[in-house]
Specification:
alpha/beta; 6-stranded parallel beta sheet
Length: 886
């Protein structure tokens, strides 16, 4: 909505983009309207051309879909083997990103950019793989259809009726160095389909009846062509922005209409919209702000005219200049507008008599730009004499002008009468300095007063307006002209300086906002910095509303300085739903206290920025334009945070899916092993006559059933811990009974390990949950028996610690022990030691810790003196009441 000028923000962004482009790889996208147009074929042909230039390239993944001519082009290319991924008993093949990064070629071919990777991959989406390749400095050739572009997905669904689930964000395509459109007519594509070059058999017949209809293909082709044309147009405008623009390039028609506070501007906007629609051309509505302050009624009318232009599809531009014609031509050159539309002048003004009217000046300055002059309707005509409209200035300025002339007149009375030439110079000096304080028309008044005073009071003959000589007459006329010209030039320079100051303030504000957003460590800090800067800049109160996670309900951010009531929240919700400004200064709910701007990215709302100024103040178009820029920057920041959170969620889901598969495989294995032993024992038991072998099979079956029972018990215990349903039942327990019960429960596993039990005879009872404590000790004993060499001893001790406030149970072994870094993760779910034997789920120590913590205790792991590991359980201990004597 604003005129673009070189500013620190743009220069900094340009430098960052150039630096980033220099470091990352190049991206070329082979783009088409739908499958079968030949994107992969074109990519492979381009690859062979690069190969002839000795470029080191590999085929990361290329989907030939059985097309012989495509498969033939793969010959001679280095193909990276696909990575095997097992998912739900299905073996899938994906691009091996790690192998490509390790190989680090100059160029890699990656087919089907919008593809969704199999669960367990490094990235959920293939385009994220491409981003990582680009960041590694590797060039990428890839393929994409128009239906997979995020901003076009809804349009494609409306055309074809098919919902597209795999999309690529437009921001990635903005990174592309080149997009090559592979165009094919619908007739040629259907011929390829009939020849079996797109789909085969029944799939081809179904495609003809559904997606590959003539109307669908024609609409998709137009959509792809328009997308490519829009990109080319942006590139053209970017190229022009770096050059001195002396003329427009007629690569396409673009219209620029001048919009002001006049009622006639409404008619002018509608006329331009009709002409633009007839030509199929984009158009711009421009307003030129001058130093003249608009009245409230004019400001309201201007707002309505600009709002109408926005609703009719115009791009809004606001700039500052005293010379309307020069500003319009400058905007037309900047935006490459080939046509300027203005209203036909109504009557004349004093300045137009001197400098020429707007149309005449546009024709002189416009060069090869077409000028359209639209006459006003009769009901909108105004008085022919319009000069009086622009003479308005603040009364104080006229007072300053008259006072300055009076001061010079009084001072000149002190000079001798023959010094009247010096008096004229003093008047002229005052005229030169007055524009620094007052406007153009007070300066004109001062020039007239000065000329008449000088003539009447100082030029001979004095006290008369008659001039006695030709020299004095020429001097008087020259003075008057010089005074007018000097006052006009000084006023213009002052206005230009004021406009440049406004532009600088805008540039600095945007630069500070961009810097604050980039330096913020998280989204909350970025929002806080942006809202505080807006508060200071506009003297307003601000609020930012964001949709709640998983819901479109707007929630105010805590950094806002404006507390919103239910009515204001409803206005913000309307702006969010309709992606249009609402509230005060708009035609939608204008009675609201705040002005609400939606944060829009890729045709969807991601938040609302609200600004509330005092009731007796207003937001000018320039201020609203600055708010638009702020809203766009905030939208980028919020979108980046959303993308980061989505990426983390995708990674978490991938890790969860991977863990789920590992757990499922492990549980299946652990369940199958004892079940297989039990099943085999029962099958062979009836066929054996040898009692010894029969007893051996029974023992094996008994051992397997105990193992199965422990496995199921561990899974149930872990479920109880995670659900929070585990409630300890405290009672006084004898320590020796606890230890003996734990040893009895795992006696079979301890057969090959001598156990040394050391419990003081006078150890008092402990208040604990007998069952939970027994299971915790049993798990520690079983862990020591299973993961230490046979015949190594296991030591079990118990006692009081810390002056009798805690009781401890220690289980130590002579196994390999644990390195320090492993001790931190031993008690996590599914965690296993590096030297652990095959089998087991890694739940035992996690369950032990859960049982101990539930009783208010803790468990630690340390080193056993002489080698091995030592696990110590600490439980709170309270002295029992003495037993009364009988």
């Amino acid at each position: 909505m604003t005129e673009q000028h070189p500013n620190p923000d743009a220069l900094l962004a340009s430098l960052k983009q150039e630096e980033a482009r220099a470091q990352r790889g190049r991206l070329k996208v082979f783009f088409g309207m739908c499958p079968g147009v030949g994107k992969t074929y074109a990519m492979l042909r381009a690859a062979h051309e690069e190969l002839r230039e000795n470029v080191d390239l590999v085929a990361g993944i290329v989907e030939t879909h059985g097309r012989k001519e495509t498969e033939a082009l793969l010959k001679g290319l280095t193909v990276i083997p696909k990575r095997k991924v097992h998912y739900r008993d299905i073996q899938l093949e994906e691009m091996d990103l790690e192998a490509i990064l390790a190989r680090k070629p100059q160029l890699v071919l990656v087919d089907e950019l919008a593809h969704t990777n199999a669960p367990g991959s490094i990235h959920p989406k293939r385009y994220q793989d491409v981003i990582e390749l680009l960041d590694a400095g590797i060039d990428v050739y890839t393929t994409l259809n128009i239906q997979h572009v995020e901003s076009r997905a809804d349009t494609v669904r409306e055309i074809t009726g098919a919902t597209v689930h795999e999309t690529v964000p437009d921001t990635l395509l903005d990174l592309a160095d080149q997009i090559e459109l592979i165009d094919l007519t619908p007739e040629a594509l259907k011929e390829r389909l009939a020849e079996g070059k797109v789909y085969l058999g029944d799939k081809a017949a179904a495609a003809v009846k559904n997606f590959f209809q003539d109307t669908h293909l024609t609409a998709l082709r137009e959509l792809a062509l328009r997308f490519t044309a829009e990109r080319v147009e942006r590139q053209l405008r970017s190229m022009r922005s770096t050059q001195v623009k002396k003329t427009v390039w007629r690569s396409g028609e673009r219209m620029l209409v001048a919009v002001g506070a006049s009622p006639f501007s409404t008619q002018l906007v509608r006329w331009t919209r009709r002409l633009a629609a007839a030509q199929g051309a984009p158009w711009i509505a421009a307003h030129i702000e001058s130093s003249h302050q608009l009245s409230p009624a004019d400001q309201t009318r201007l707002d309505k005219n600009m709002a109408l232009a926005r609703e009719l599809g115009a791009e809004l531009v606001v700039t500052h200049d005293e010379d309307v014609a020069a500003a319009l031509v400058r905007l037309a050159l900047h935006h490459n507008a080939t046509q300027i539309v203005v209203g036909k002048p109504r009557g004349f003004s004093l300045m137009e008599m001197i400098r020429g009217n707007l149309v005449d000046r546009l024709i002189r300055l416009g060069g090869n730009i077409d000028i359209y002059v639209v006459p006003a309707e009769s009901r909108s005509r105004q008085n022919a004499w319009r000069g009086i409209e622009t003479i308005y200035s603040h009364p104080a300025e006229y007072g300053w002008a008259a006072g300055a002339m009076a001061l010079v007149t009084l001072g000149a009375q002190l000079l001798p009468s023959e010094y009247y030439l010096a008096t004229g110079l003093l008047y002229l000096l005052a005229i030169v300095f007055l524009p620094l304080r007052v406007g153009r028309w007070p300066v004109l008044l001062a020039a007239v007063i000065g000329a008449l005073s000088w003539n009447f009071l100082f030029i001979p003959p004095r006290y008369t307006f008659a001039i006695g000589s030709i020299e004095n007459a020429i001097l008087f006329v020259t003075y008057f002209v010089v005074a007018l010209v000097a006052g006009e030039l000084t006023s213009r320079i002052r206005a230009q300086a004021r406009h440049e100051r406004r532009r600088e303030e805008r540039a600095v504000a945007l630069f500070n906002l961009t810097r604050s957003l980039s330096e913020a460590e998280n989204m909350d800090d970025a929002i806080f910095a942006a809202l505080r800067q807006t508060d200071r800049l506009l003297g307003a109160k601000t609020a930012l509303l964001l949709p709640a996670l998983g819901d479109d309900k707007l929630v105010p951010h805590y950094a806002g300085s404006h507390v919103m009531d239910q009515r204001e929240t409803g206005v913000a919700a309307w702006a969010f739903r309709h992606r249009r400004p609402a509230g005060r200064f708009t035609d939608t709910l204008p009675g609201s206290a705040g002005y609400y701007l939606p944060l829009v990215r890729e045709n969807r709302s991601i938040g609302v920025l609200g600004v509330t100024v005092p009731a007796d103040e207003t937001l000018t178009l320039a201020q609203r334009d600055l708010l638009d820029a702020f809203a766009r920057q905030l939208a980028l920041s919020v979108e980046r945070e959303h993308l980061r959170e989505a990426s983390e969620r995708e990674k978490l889901l991938a890790e969860s899916e991977k863990l789920h598969r590992v757990l499922l495989d492990s549980v299946s294995h652990e369940l199958r092993t004892p079940l297989a032993v039990i099943s085999s024992a029962f099958e062979n038991l009836s066929e054996l006559n040898d009692s010894k072998l029969r007893d051996s099979l029974v023992a094996e079956g008994r051992t397997a059933s105990r193992r199965l029972n422990r496995l199921v018990g561990n899974l149930l215990d872990q479920t109880r811990l995670e659900s929070g349903s585990l409630k300890p039942r405290f009672d006084w327990c004898d320590v020796s009974d606890l230890m003996n019960a734990a040893l009895d429960g795992v006696r079979d596993a301890l057969t090959n390990h001598p156990v040394d039990v050391s419990i003081p005879a006078n150890l008092p009872p402990v208040r604990a949950d007998f069952t939970l404590t027994e299971q915790a000790l049993a798990n520690l004993l079983l862990n020591a028996a299973l993961h230490t060499p046979a015949s190594t001893p296991i030591f079990v001790t118990a006692g009081l610690d810390l002056g009798g406030k805690r009781i401890f149970f220690m289980v130590a072994d002579r196994g390999p022990g644990f390195p320090p870094e492993m001790k931190e993760r031993l008690f996590k779910k599914f965690s296993r030691g590096d030297a652990a034997r095959v089998g087991g789920l890694g739940l035992g120590l996690s369950i032990v810790r859960g049982f101990v913590v539930a009783q208010g205790g803790e468990i630690v792991v340390g080193d056993n003196p002489g080698g091995g590991a030592a696990f110590t359980i600490y439980l709170p201990h309270h002295a029992t009441d003495p037993v009364p004597e009988e």
